[in-house]
Structure formats: C-alpha cells, structure tokens
User: Fold this.
Amino acid sequence: MPADLAAAPGRLPDLRSGTVADLRRVGINPDFWYPVARSRSVRKEKTFAATFAGERIALYRGESGTVYALEDRCAHRQIPLSMGVVEGDVLRCCYHAWAYRGNGRISQIPYLPKNAGRPPRGVRAYPVREAYGLVFVFPGDPRNADGTALPELPEFESAKHKTMTFSRTVSCHYSFMHENLLDMNHQFLHRGVVGRIKPTLLGYDASPDAVEARYLFTHAGGKKNSGAGLLASKSVGGTSSPDVITIRTGYPYQTLRLVPENAELPAFSLWVAYVPEDAEQRTCHVYGLLMIEKPPVPGAIQLAWPLIRRFTERVFAEDRMAVEAEQRAWDEQGEDRNHEVFPLIMDVRQVLRANGVPLRPRSGPCGGAALCTDHALAGPARQAEPGAGS
Assistant:
C-alpha cells in the first residue's frame, strides 16, 4: 500500500493526473472470499461450472452435502471436471474415469498399470464456504483463507428481515458497478421509476480500503413506483424519519443501508459483490442480497414482495444499461476518457486501484490475460445460473 494514502486524514489523495493507472485495467484482488454460485444451484451429487476472472472452477456437492471446488480440468486430457460424475464425495472425470477427492488429489486411475510412471498428483482445490445461500471460494493464496473473514450480515439471520437474492451478469468492469451505486447523483436515470429524487451528500469518509458516503433523499415530485414506497422507511420500518442512506465500498464488497432513527437494524440493507467472470474482467457477475424489514402486519411482506421485486429489477435494468454503455465506450476508445468532477468517486477509484492487482496481457506467463498471481488460471466464461432471482 503506498505510504501517501494516509497523508490526508479522511481523504485519499486527489490523483487526477495522466500518470494514474487506468482503473479499467486493474484486476480485482483474489485474496478475498467471492461468491461464484447460489447454494441451490449446486445440487447434491451434481456439478456446477463456475468462473472467477477467467479461472474455470468445478463445484460439486458430495453425498455428505459438502461443497467442493476444484480447478475445472482433468490432469489427464484437460477435459472439464464439471462434465464429470459425482460418486459419494469423489468427482470422476467423464472421459477416462480418473477420480478426484475434494482436496484435488487423484484417488483412482482405473486402468493404471503397475509399472507405469508416476501419475500427476491432481489439480488445484479452492477453499470453499457456504453462507447466506451462496457458495464462496477463495481464489487467492489459500494460506490466507482462514485469516480472511466472510462478510458479516446480521440482518440475513434476523427473523425481522426477509432476503431477496439477485444473481445477474453485467457486461462491464467491476469498477463501473462500484461507481454506479456510490454516486447517487444519477437519479435522473431512474426518473420514470422513482420520480424526481434530490440526493444530498451529507458527507463521506475515506480510508485506504473503504469509502462510506451518507445521502439524504428528498422526493421532489413525479410519480413514485409503489415498490419504491414499500422500501421507504415510513412504509417498511413504521417510522416517518428522513431517508438517510449510507453506501459503503469496503473492498471488495459494497453495501447500502437505510437505518431509521433509534433502530437497531436497518429498514433495508443491500450487500453486493461484483465477481469478474472473464480473464480481461470486462464482464462481472453481480450477487446481491437485499434484506428488508418485515412490516408489523403479518403476511404483508409476502404481498409486497412482487412489487418490491419488480421495482428493484427495473432500477437494476436501468443501471445495467448505463454501466454497459460506459464499458462499450472504454472498449471503443481503448482508454478511460472519463472527466470525473465528484471527489467521492475520485476517492473510491483510488481505493479500487490501491487494493487491486495488475492484469497481464494475453501473452503473459499467467496465461490468457489473467491476474498477476501465482494462482492464476485461464478459461472461458462460466455456466449461467438457473433461477437467477428469488
């Protein structure tokens, strides 16, 4: 971490010169836990093909119910192990039936002659955990996995909240997504859904690995979607307190919370991770958990659920249209020509630069424009998840 990041308390350096690295060429840091599938997509005794930044990963759930994550290739002929067959807690390649334990080691080669040379030991296994209805893998240095915490989401476990899960692919660099959520000055984009919203930045704090902003939302007119009203504090939390929303990029995740006055838990909160799919990291998979406080009337949340889902899907669709257009402009121009004027976004860009890792070109020894780490693997895009929303 550069020493000058701490030079100005509460504010990161203003790096607007042409010497600053193009953020869209910065890879996400693999030394964190990243969701790569919904738990329900990895069925018992079945496989699921996932990816992280071009690394193909074969997930499978054994007979015991445990989920394993292996490099998605057989050490023999490089056939994807995600095409294989689960037997007990072992994954067997569909081609020559080489069998792999959950730790990646080969447990059987059915036809191996006694006088044959030493076969390969196996393939890479990833640390894997299940939480919040998601399957997380640790694609970085496995020695760092135990010391790296999963995100803490107390609202997910709260009986007072109900969770809506999002799983969508967006064709843009993950940094565009961080900027989109943190910069609430784009509400004009959503005028057809939320009416005229006036966001006022109350203040923000910045550190080497996080930026947290507080906004006051005022409805200035226009028709407001009924689903938006159900998410407002006066409708969900049973209070008429102002809508003060806190948005935080705490690398590598992002959160949005609306906490009414004198409340212990938020009226609603959003946790989201943007997981690069391709090696160039121009496509990311968005995993989001929207945790909504249940109204005091029993069963009301079930009645409101379709309206809230419709509202959030419309907002997401508009945001996706914008960020994908930004990515197309970057692709056409070959560089970041943005002229940013909002200090908050300048600071979050520096957080993403400072905590990310360089990407190597396609000809680099990492293979296939992969991350510059010792654990990089190359491969095509991931399998689409069935049932993306709930």
Q: What stands out?
A: The two ends are 39 Å apart (CA to CA). Helices lie at 154-157, 174-182, 191-194, 226-231, 233-236, 300-333, 343-355. Confidence is low (pLDDT under 50) at residues 1-18, 233-240, 363-370, 372-388.
